[in-house]
TrEMBL record:
<dbReference type="Pfam" id="PF01609">
    <property type="entry name" value="DDE_Tnp_1"/>
</dbReference>
<keyword id="KW-0812">Transmembrane</keyword>
<feature type="transmembrane region" description="Helical">
    <location>
        <begin position="105"/>
        <end position="123"/>
    </location>
</feature>
<keyword id="KW-1133">Transmembrane helix</keyword>
<dbReference type="InterPro" id="IPR002559">
    <property type="entry name" value="Transposase_11"/>
</dbReference>
<keyword id="KW-0472">Membrane</keyword>
<feature type="domain" description="Transposase IS4-like">
    <location>
        <begin position="2"/>
        <end position="109"/>
    </location>
</feature>
<protein>
    <submittedName>
        <fullName>Transposase</fullName>
    </submittedName>
</protein>
Length: 125
């Protein structure tokens, strides 16, 4: 998860075969109170995520999945800001250790991600 400037603020590591939807609960549970909107891709399209955000008065900008019967609207212009999270992942992958995942243990790999994210956060202008 990144802030409005594309700086990493929340990180959560899941297994490779786990969908984005399963890790979203952990990330969305501790959002700051001043959060106004959350932008996500189709992988986060679920009624449970949308409802939990609506209860906290947070705008969910998530395009509906193609196979969804009732397609909730989303702000297409706001969705264009999603490139910030993609850019953040690209910057994380500039770090060779993160991109190739040399570490076998999840906690060691997460430590490398945190070091890279710290540099990205404080060097981002």
């Amino acid at each position: 998860m990144c802030d409005g400037q594309g700086r990493p603020v929340r990180l959560h590591l899941t297994a490779g075969q786990v969908s984005d939807f399963k890790g979203a609960d952990v990330l969305l549970a501790d959002l700051p109170d001043e959060t106004e909107e959350v932008i996500g891709d189709r992988g986060y399209d679920s009624n449970r995520i949308r409802l939990s955000l609506a209860e906290r008065h947070i705008t969910a900008c998530i395009p509906p999945k193609k196979n969804r019967k009732s397609k909730p609207p989303y702000n297409w212009h706001l969705y264009k800001k999603r490139h910030l999270i993609e850019n953040m992942f690209a910057k994380l992958k500039d770090w060779r250790r993160v991109a190739t995942r040399y570490d076998r243990c999840a906690h060691t790999f997460m430590s490398a991600i945190h070091i890279a994210a710290s540099f990205i956060f404080y060097l981002k202008e």
